[in-house]
Amino acid sequence: MLNIEKYGAVDIGSNAIRLLVVSVIEQEGKDTLFKKTSLVRVPIRLGAEVFLEGKISDNSANRMVDAMTAFRLLMKTHNINRFRACATSAMREASNGREIAEIIEKRSGLTINIIDGNDEAAIIASTDLKNLIQDDKVFLYVDVGGGSTEFTVFANGHIVASRSFKLGTVRLINDRVDESMWNDVEEWIKNVTKNFHKVSLIGSGGNINSIYKSSGKKIGKPLSFFYLSSYYEYIKSFTYEERITELDMNPDRADVVVPATRIYLSAMKWSKAKNVFVPKIGLSDGIVRSLYNEKIAAEIEVQ
């Protein structure tokens, strides 16, 4: 007998706001299935103004209210059983971030949890990677966002190190990242991977998903360092406008894809990884998994 519930997760990032709807299918005697039902993405790009001006504008705040109201109606239509919204770099750094969160709650009815970088990394790391992470291999998980990048090292099937850095694509295109930040990331990656003989990357985020899709690779097959390096030089040879018109990229992807690729390539270089796997998971997936784990924990307490 199956027990099916729908979960909703909203990721309010520096580049876009996303609603992920997942069907959680419980089977007696078998592993629970997490089937993605719907994904809606709205490119509001909060980080562009927060990292420059330090606050969220009235116009962006109104767009957020509209988006969250629409998400609430969509979740009602989907008959969502459990839901959580998490905001990352842009809202936690905005001087009026909590004020805007309160306004959104009053007008849309949805509560926003503003999480810090370590919480973000922990939620992402809670995603189900067991089909990819083998006990005898080492992986550096890299989730590139608009405001920050989360790094997690898996070895022997367990997390051995995790850290969030203010190195994000929207920050980079707005020249809000000092060279010292790159040095800090390089030092951290080299330090946490130095004792491992062979490391592979796991990449998540909209940019690496887009790159993977354009590569034509079969699901489960990794991208090589050589391929990603060639892709980086290729897209850099086009202007922003040409990436939109000639490479058919969305306007909100055409500018951030270049710095995102640089981050992945740098992580591969510093960890000496030759391949990057792209399982298409991220913060939204981690939110759903966290909600499910909380449900299971509550059921155990009741028994």
Summarize the structure in words.
The chain has 303 residues and is of the alpha/beta class. It has two domains: 2-117 and 284-302, 2-Layer Sandwich (Nucleotidyltransferase, domain 5), CATH 3.30.420.40; 129-280, 2-Layer Sandwich (Nucleotidyltransferase, domain 5). Helix content is 47%, strand content 24%. A six-stranded mixed sheet has the order 8-7-6-9-11-10, sandwiched between helices. A five-stranded mixed sheet has the order 3-2-1-4-5, with helices on both faces. 41% of the residues are buried. The mean pLDDT is 94.
Number of domains: 2
Write out the CATH superfamily name of the largest domain: Exopolyphosphatase. Domain 2
N-C termini distance: 21 Å
Approximate helicity band: 40-55%
Mind describing the biggest β-sheet? 6 strands, mixed
Named at the architecture level, the CATH assignment of the largest domain is: 2-Layer Sandwich
InterPro entries: ATPase_NBD (IPR043129), GppA/Ppx_hydrolase (IPR050273), Ppx_GppA_N (IPR003695)
Organism: Aequorivita soesokkakensis
GO molecular function, one term: pyrophosphatase activity
Domain Ppx/GppA phosphatase N-terminal: 41-291
Key features of this structure:
6-stranded mixed sheet; 2 domains; Nucleotidyltransferase, domain 5; 303 residues; single chain
Give the structure's gist in a few sentences.
The protein has 303 residues and is an alpha/beta fold. The protein has 13 helices and 11 strands. InterPro entries: ATPase_NBD, GppA/Ppx_hydrolase, Ppx_GppA_N.
